[in-house]
Write a structure and sequence with these properties.
The chain has 171 residues and is an alpha/beta fold. It has eight helices and six strands, in the order αβαβααβαβαβαβα. The strands form two sheets. A three-stranded parallel β-sheet has the order 1-2-3. The protein has a three-stranded parallel β-sheet with strand order 4-5-6, sandwiched between helices. α5 packs across α6. 34% of the residues are buried.
């Protein structure tokens, strides 16, 4: 819901194409999304992300990686991916996170880059909410809906514009 509403406001959703919240966000706004991979693009296109990558690209979204084409994912590539996500974003919104979640790494990078960090609160006994609740305790802005996010970012709701590539190379 948040991703859809933000995309309808003209924003682009940047996330990591991981299972769960990331994939759901990319899926609902394929034409207004940037999927940042924690592996090489050719490696990802041969794995379980192939269909999602194709759908994003066909819809006009963007899939990027800073890794060589056939670099497999490792536990070290995902924090690097999170750094890129934070760098591309004007703000980081964490919807679901355990205490050891990569989303908390992204939030840390966002703070280092001077970006806003927001978090959706969750039940205090749910391990998938511990990371969000901790971020809020540490000073992240509590968000419950897209209006909270728009207000924090100073963004009015507006219809997005879609640009199309003008040259054969761009296409």
């Amino acid at each position: 819901t948040l991703a859809t509403s933000l995309a309808e406001s003209g924003l682009v959703i940047v996330s990591g194409l991981a299972h769960g919240v990331d994939s759901a966000a990319h899926q609902v706004c394929r034409d207004r999304t940037i999927a940042v991979l924690g592996q090489g693009i050719d490696c990802a296109r041969k794995g379980n992300k192939a269909k999602a990558i194709e759908e994003i690209v066909q819809a006009g979204g963007l899939v990027v990686s800073e890794f060589p084409p056939y670099q497999p994912p490792t536990r070290h590539t995902f924090p690097q991916r999170n750094r890129v996500i934070a760098g591309l974003s004007i703000a980081t919104a964490v919807v679901e996170a355990t205490m050891r979640s990569g989303s908390r790494i992204t939030a840390r990078y966002a703070l280092e880059y001077g970006r806003d960090v927001m978090a959706v609160p969750g039940h205090p006994f749910d391990s998938n909410s511990e990371g969000c609740n901790a971020l809020i305790q540490e000073g992240a802005l509590l968000i419950q809906n897209v209006q909270d996010m728009r207000s924090a970012l100073g963004i009015q709701a507006q219809k997005p514009t879609k640009s199309s590539p003008e040259t054969a190379v761009a296409k």
